[in-house]
Please model this.
Amino acid sequence: MDVICSILWIYWWVILARILFSWVRVEPGTALDSVYGVVHRLTEPVLGPLRAAIPPVRLGLAAIDLSPIIVFLVIALIC
Model:
């Protein structure tokens, strides 16, 4: 169980990196773009289906994606 929890906590940090990437502009062709591509490929298989099942919450002109929060809660409950 310790190995699974360790992997899940690493994934937790990868999702957090994706959230942070969503707040900054990543220029195509840069090293940061390569890192973002890896982070996106690692997280989209989990976040994509959740996002499809639970649409973002609208707050005026903005929207909050709840899928990372749900994954964070699930990881916290498992570990």
